[in-house]
Design brief:
By secondary structure, the protein is α+β, with helices and mostly antiparallel strands. Helix content is 23%, strand content 42%. The chain is built from 5 helices and 10 strands, in the order H-E-E-H-H-E-E-E-E-E-E-E-E-H-H. Strands 1, 2, 3, 4, 5, 6, 7, 8, 9 and 10 form a 10-stranded antiparallel β-sheet that branches.
Amino acid sequence: MPRAKPVLLVLLALFARGGDAAQLTTNYKRVGKRVEFGGSWLIRETFDDGVDAARAAAWLQDPRRVLAAAWPAEHIRAANGGGGDVLAFALTQDPIDFAGLVHVDCVVDVDVAREPRGGVSLASRSVEAFATLRGKRRPVPMDFRLRGHLEGQPDAGGAAALVGSFEYSMSADLIGPLVFVPDRALRLAAAGVNRKLALGDRFADGVLAGVRADAPS
């Protein structure tokens, strides 16, 4: 049935930018018509020679710069909220057309806090998502949570390591024919989405590249 497209999986795919996530754990739960997907990533990457923990911590003190390691800078804007060492941002996800039938756009509000030892922690506050199907745009109710932290720590040989973790979960009611999709198929889909998401790799690669680009000449 060509129109039986999984809107929930489309929403999850909004966060996918390609790549294989290292040290990934996939979570999945289905209760009746409601399904929850999630994943968690552990990060430990060594910086280039000459980058010590102090320099890494200083680079990580800029929340917007850290977010830009994983999201396009033009998709990050300041939002209401925050205060003190906590800054609020709205992250616009790249729109997606799914099989020419469903268009989904989504904005996630997050709080980013500077950590006392250098680094940042991140937590989502809310998500606003819309799906356009057959020319009609409608809100898509869901529960979404994203949490994570990054910091620079001393590593062997005097260099520094980027250490952190991220986890997210997203849940929504199955709609239409999705109610009849076998549980195994949904579980495999969740694992595939997490591999594409590669949240840990996105942050690690972006931060390491950013520190390298800012190296003194």
